[in-house]
Amino acid sequence: MLYDLIIRDALVIDGSDTPGYRADVALGDGRIQRIGDLDDVSAREEINAAGRVLAPGFIDVHTHDDTVVIRQPAMLPKITQGVTTVIVGNCGISASPVSLAGDPPDPMNLLGPAAAFVYPRFSDYRNAVDAARPAVNVAALIGHTALRSNHMDDLFRTARADEISAMRGQLRDSLADGALGLSTGLAYASAFSAETDEVKQLAEELTAFGAVYTTHLRSEFEPVLEAMDEAFAIGRHAKSPVVISHLKCAGAGNWGRSPQLLASLENAALTHPVGCDCYPYAASSSTLDLKQVTDAFPITITWSTPHPDQGGRELKDIAADWDLSLEDTARKLQPAGAVYYGMDENDVQRIMKHPLSMIGSDGLPEDPFPHPRLWGAFPRVLGHFSRDLGLFALHTAVHKMTGLTATRFGLHDRGFVREGYCADLVLFNADTVRDVADFKEPRRAAEGIDAVWVNGHLSYAEGKAQGERQGRFLPRSGSLVGGFDSVGPALAGKASAATAQN
């Protein structure tokens, strides 16, 4: 048989959290056809990897790329990192199903202006992704806040029975059309007033589909353990796996509490499938929240609608120029976005190292001055944390970006280098891969990413996009009832040992 491509002499790190092995890999018809010593076969094209790492394409488990994948389908911030699939609809905000009566409420404005929300049904969004053919694959969650904005005239209260029924109907239709599950952003004012029972009733729709529940917790500050308990209770009620978004110890008063959070996660994992994602930085980024304004750590303004010239400046410097308090300055800047340097590096590393955590960027592509995680999260894990600091083995780093994520979200033919799987692949130099984007120059492509294939087609090489875009919409491809294919309880033992060592 004549294959489309053979990648010869690669160090294959296959996504399963096991050490790599040298092999040839043959691609054909968009899939991985053979792996092994392939001296006896030929292809239309051959590449000598010369021992460089061939891994599954990275899956960015936590993105806000919902509308950008359609409006800017080249997706350079992601494809240049080796990302081949993005999961959108996180933190309770999604591009669909949405019918706006005016401007998008905070934080839905992170996804773009009102003109970007043109998908009243999830099937409309799915069709738009396929028509745009972005450079990366797209899988999508349904946002709780998006549903609320469709059916409630006041987001600062809990929903009535008729409103919950209408939201459930839209969620059910979206799940039938291939959505991965439900996400919440209960920390945001537009959802904070939603009582736990409101979310539980919505989550009941997940049960029949075997879909996942992900959540930006009601608090990442002092009440974080109570917020985690709420998330686990919702998941148990719906018999749905739970993923806590960007698990962190936010605020200086919370620093050092990561062992408590991880112990809570492990305890829940003993009886129910749970996990978390995290990003490899000690700074967060979102809309400018008056509740988070403090002088305990620096805050950088990333955008401001009334004062766009202040983007990229420190809040304290703006306050000094305006001769105002930090709080009054923040009010004057709103609506706005910010980077908060509100985490401790030791907590970040402890959570990132934990066996129950996956890697996500949480990048905000609409920000004029974005957090560098948008362009650098995945190479930063490979280079800085795995190679330079030795936080975990390279194959573990890859697992947290690929196989673990694919398993947790039911993407059954992605995330691994295995025969018959879709050929989403990244070839990189383990000795040189690194993030280049930083807080001063955040829009810079990573180094050491040599080639990226999406659905078997070369999509990035030699520092630039290649060929036609080959991404597609990825519907939920299976039920997660009973667990993340057992990865939750199975990891609990490893998790306990890891926490004991920290």
From TrEMBL:
Bilayer-spanning residue ranges: none
InterPro entries per record: Amidohydro_3, D-aminoacylase_insert_dom_sf, Metal-dep_hydrolase_composite, Metal_Hydrolase, Metallo-dep_Hydrolases_sf
One GO molecular-function entry: hydrolase activity, acting on carbon-nitrogen (but not peptide) bonds, in linear amides
Record domain Amidohydrolase: where: 45-459
Chain coiled-coil ranges: none
CDD domains in the record: D-aminoacylase
Any one of the GO CC terms: cytosol
Protein name: D-aminoacylase
Lineage: Bacteria, Pseudomonadati, Pseudomonadota, Gammaproteobacteria, Pseudomonadales
